[in-house]
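# step 3/5: fold
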Amino acid sequence: MEVSREIEFPVPPDEVWEALTDPEQLEEWFANDVELDLREGGAGIFRWED
């Protein structure tokens, strides 16, 4: 299955990339706890509080 969505943000691309790849920023708006391995083949772990 594949899900895709296109969204335009009124900020420069580097700010969007940082918000998607910086665990501290992701914890501000997406999940409560984030672990990312940004290497090719790396994993992302996202945890939410109950």
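# step 4/5: annotate
Residues 13-21 form the longest helix (9 residues).
# step 5/5: archive (pending)
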